[in-house]
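User: Show me a protein chain along with its predicted structure.
Assistant: Here is one chain, sequence first, then structure tokens.
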Amino acid sequence: MTPQDAPHILVIDDDPAFNRVLTRALGQRGFTVFGAQEAETALALAHEHEPEYVVLDLNIDGSSGLRLIEPLLAANPDCRILVLTGYASIATTVDAIKLGAIQYLAKPADVDAILKALQAGDVIIDDELNTSPMSIDRLEWEHIQRVLGENDGNISATARALKMHRRTLQRKLAKRPVKE
């Protein structure tokens, strides 16, 4: 595969170290990779290079990365978008998929998991369903994430909607419950 034939991947993450490491690792695996740390640069690169794949962070400099899914798909309708986040929740996962992302992974995710998710052709159905109920902490986390999504990631508006002090909400968001 020549460099001109290599699939293009756009990495959109506002963490400069993570962006640089992931961009380099994907480049070493034979992809042509472009990195962006803000929305405007990401959209300009998407229109210029029409990437086949996009790795999109959910939080781009305090704003929801979900807002970029539709313009990225407008630049290349066949683009496969993976949303990557440190704050995974059911509500944001559903929103990402409804907007056109093909996959959603929680950080930390290694390069192989990212590539597998980007290139997976079919949905894999796990026959082993977890029948135990979610813990109270997990239910609270999911509810907070849903309300946060409804308020476009605005912490102050979410705290008001939950009738909670802003600092209390920030502490709860910092204490992500363990995956069950």
